[in-house]
Amino acid sequence: MTTKTFADLGVAEPLCRALAAQNYTTPTPIQAQSIPALLEGRDLLGLAQTGTGKTAAFVLPILQRLDPQAKRPHKGARVVILAPTRELAIQIGQSIETYGRNLKLRHTVIFGGVNQFRQVKALAGGVDILVATPGRLLDLMNQRHADLRQASVLVLDEADRMLDMGFIHDVKKIVAALPKTRQSLLFSATMPSNIEHLAAEILNDPVRVEVRPEVITVDKIDQRVLHVDGKRKRELLTKLLDDSEMSRVIVFTRTKHCANRVSEQLEKTGIAAEAIHGNKSQGARQRALDQFRTGKARVLVATDIAARGIDVTGITHVVNYELPNEPESYVHRIGRTARAGKSGIAISFCDASERSHLRSIEKLTKRPITVVATTEWLGDQVAVPAGEPADARPARNGPRGPRHQPGKPRRFGKPGAGRGRPQGGQKQSRRQSAAQ
Question: 28 burial class (0-12, 13-18, 19+ CB within 10 angstroms)?
């Protein structure tokens, strides 16, 4: 059977160009099953978890079906997408921006915990797509800052999480404010009875799509976590990379800005690094990948979205410079260093604000991550409160023993071994470069 492309699914050329710019060429199973039905205007019930490509599965058809010439409703939106958390809402907004870069459509993201002034201002003139958390949206509706009477599409993403977080009544009030004639989509990782009842209430003869996420084993990956103050992460990363055995490394960050900052810092210390994220042009991303594949760049600093579709063999280490908000993203990140039956090493930095993310990761993987003290590189160790994740005795304590045992993957390698040597694509010193 021939593998389908996005064009085969009916995705329009401007969207296909945006996908190609992100190195997305092959639809995931949920995209292949959902996009044709959604382009026809069907309702959809999707059973899918994070990491399956579900966001693009609904964002692409929505963008394609919106007429950019249509009038935007005053204080309203033509499409309403509800998400349980601000992080997911922001992520969906970023996807809309990325895929809709060639379209003249307006969107906004609103959530609680921040001043509502800018959100009210963004809604005043109307938007094509509104991404919102239920609580803040209902607040704005009650204040008459948001009017959903002209919305034609409703998306409920991660409906089971909305239920767990107590948003179900807010969701029902929001749904009641929308027109009865509309296209409705509901996505959920699980299908408890109350979600089934909600789906029955809001969906009309839906297409049902169920996709299980790709299973990535972490058994062959040596996972370590270093508790470190956020301000010292760049210093720690630079010192870890003194180890020449870290010859082909992907460093993951949560934001584009951080990816640029880390890459620039590594370059200043003489380590060949490239950054790849959504703000880079397709040509710039391709050049960065080529540098990394050929070994001219030893380190690739990437965001999760930009890293999707990257297929580079021989990655020795993955460094989570910032832990992801979603634990499934952690599994996908570290899986890049244990391909084709090989072992690999995953190193995570964790500051105080990220400990809840670490708890979620350990819960998902059903295994504690070994702690490594930072004393060897920074001269001190961040104290981890009792009961926090990965607070077991640091792996560096006790008898030192041999540095490396044959047949076992190195933890990191020998600190200091890589400085001044252009192994694995590390840059030569400025003095050497000037002499050539």
Answer: buried
| Secondary structure class of 131 (helix, strand, coil) | strand
Domains, the chain, ranges and CATH? 13-210 (3.40.50.300), 221-427 (3.40.50.300)
- Proportion of the chain above pLDDT 70, given as a percent: 81
Structure-block tokens of residue 421: 């040597």
The strand order across the sheet containing 221-227 reads: 273-276, 299-303, 249-253, 317-320, 344-350, 221-227, 370-371
Across 228-283, the runs of DSSP E, i.e. the strands, are 249-253, 273-276
Strands (E), 26-143: 44-47, 77-82, 107-110, 127-132
Neighbours of 72 (CB within 10 A): 15
Residue whose C-alpha is closest to residue 411's, from 229, 216, 236, 221: 221
Asked if residue 432 has pLDDT above 80, the reply is no
8 A C-beta contact, residue 107 and residue 96: yes
> 100-128: buried (b, 16+ CB within 10 Å) or exposed (e) per residue?
beebebbbbbbbeeeebeebeebbeebbb
pLDDT, residue 346, reads 94
Is the Cβ–Cβ distance between 345 and 410 less than 8 Å?
yes
> Do residues 360 and 327 lie in contact, with contact meaning Cβ atoms separated by under 8 Å?
yes
Q: Tokens standing for 222? A: 């040596």
Model confidence pLDDT, tens digit, residues 375-398:
888 876 666 655 555 554 444 433
DSSP letter for 353, please. G
Distance CA 415, CA 240 (A): 7
Geometric angle at alpha carbon 337, from 332 and 339, rounded to 5°: 90
